[in-house]
Amino acid sequence: MDVRVEGQMVEAGDSVASTLRKALSGKRFKAVVAACGASGELLDLHAPLPAGCDALTPVFGEDPRGLELIRHSAAHVMAAAVKRLFPEARVTIGPAIDNGFYYDFAVARPFSSEDFPAIEAEMRRIVDARQPFVRREMGKAEAVEFFRAAGESYKVEIVEGIEGDTVSLYTCGEFTDLCRGPHVPDTGFVRASKLMSVAGAYWRGDEKNAMLSRIYGTAFADEKALGAYLQQLEEARRRDHRKLGKDLRLFSFREDVAPGMVFWLPKGMLVRTILEDFWRREHLRRGYELVQGPQMLRVETWMKSGHYDNYRDNMYFSSIDEDAYGIKPMNCIAHMLIFGNELRSYRDLPQRYFELGVVHRHEKSGVLHGLLRVRQFTQDDAHILCMPEQLEEEILGVIHLVRDLMGLFGFEYKVAVSTRPEQSIGTDEAWEMATSALVGAVEKAGLPYTVNKGDGAFYGPKIDVRLLDCIGREWQCSTIQVDFTLPERFDLAYIGQDGGRHRPVMVHRAIMGSLERFIGILVEHYAGALPVWFAPEQARVLTVTGAGDAAAQELCARLKDAGIRVASDLRNEKLGFKVREAQVAKVPYVLVVGEKEAQEGGASVRLRSGENLGLKSVTEIAGLVRADAEEPFKQGGMCYSFS
RNA sequence: GCCCUUGUAGCUCAGUCGGUAGAGUGCAUCCUUGGUAAGGAUGAGGUCACCAGUUCAAUCCUGGUCAAGGGCUCCA
Questions:
Q1: So what's the ipTM on this one?
Q2: What is the pLDDT of residues A180-190, one digit of tens each?
Q3: Residue A219 CA to B27 C1' — how many Å?
Q4: Is A332 a catalytic residue?
């Protein structure tokens, strides 16, 4: 029988490898890590050619599937090295993950990064030995016996949990591990790897179980790809909003005073204010109304809403005159009550309430992370109360708002629709109606989406939007949720055309999600070089010598009159020094005033890119800055300027 | 909460194999008036996170506490 390999037909060999060898050049064959069978399954190179197999695709290390194999095999190599150095360590699991792999070990003394050099050296020896990965099938009982004899109690537990009669084992050198496979042909393919960090991890991810010692590592097809990845990590560190926030004086944290809560410094607060102002205006333009509820509500209200039962552990409480109050972790209750404040007609619907609502949530201390995970934050929260037949239209409006906002910052994004989970309330009919409204809206908007089956909230289906920043990281921001419960619990109603009382449907949505978090993402996305429209300092006037002070102040005043956020640096320092400081502060426009400019008026303009535009008049400069600030709005159909 | 790492000047970090500490940067003052990424000098600034223990002596060793950072979702 003949087998198709990369477009040519070759005679089937005994093994996958021998078949491929007939079709590939020696050099290419050496780089193959595995093969993909006719039905898409991955095969070990050493494996016998499956019966009836009529096509094979070689998989290389650069291929995502090949890379995953390399990483999985790297986990085995690391485990083998650890077993050599620490024979008493018991192995547990070691999968490939997004950016590498890990392996969890049960050891008396947890590993630390100081153990890395020894482990890496041992790994190197194993890699250089080019030990083949040998697969073997074994009956379950036999496998249990094998691992019990080896003292690998965790493996025994895993084998016992596996369905079916046989399991597969892979051996490289003296190390044998339970593994589904496949693997790279030999350890030589794990030539570019690096151990990254250690962490504690619970057995099977359950905090009731024993704490294991996890070692994270990464591996690539070659040193070049590994180097590129390490460089990308370096780039991410360079963009870290916590560092940039400190350097650029945007915000600070005082762990001793208020852990997980932000102190907004003047520049950061200006950025926030501009974003808030823009966002409020945009909401007004799209038919939302601004509202605001109290910061704390009596505890009885939280009982009525269900938050006390379901969310109490994350809430802060206080008491006033012996009455218990809960500080709001969400804004929806006040919006419910605002709807219920008067009798509503179907003519009044939809009601769209928008609030930049400050909420408090008690996050566990270990999960706080700069602006991205805090305990007090501001949601760009809205609740739309509408008739069921308006639902799709309303959701479409929200999706358009998401699209326009993401476009404004140049974010790519991914949409996922989450459907009814096992545990949920509400009728099938309501779920069906809401889910089809969500799907219908996404389709009308022409957006590709995925479905997360059973991942909806217990009270309704939802759309989640994950944005991708400019270095490809994903962030969960926007969420659009349909909710049947709250209108029910608060007995909200409107009078329909028929004169009867009807229950409105509620859409809960946040686009930026948390303002704090969104600003953190923006800082990382732009690496601190914020676009002119919300840069806290759009321009800085620098003098060459003290003789330019008066002209600089005059220029500054005129630009301020033109609505430009400008500062001046009249310090007694050399120009090069001041230029550097402005550059480090990522100021978009640096305006230099020297003798020549003082005489002719205007300033010589240096951009953040380092480009020098030469002498420009005040009017020209104001025009440049303004045009730059308006640029991002050209695509979104939006329009905004802060003044 | 749990595991690993870390905690020294406003910031970034050295250092002391146990004898209470240093650099760069920033800040202040002075000199310097310099044309697009760092001019020079001088000075101020620290209960070495906190609490115990060991010791003649602890910032350093030991134990504990607090905080931060990396993880604790990826399942042979």
A1: 0.84
A2: 878 899 899 98
A3: 46
A4: yes
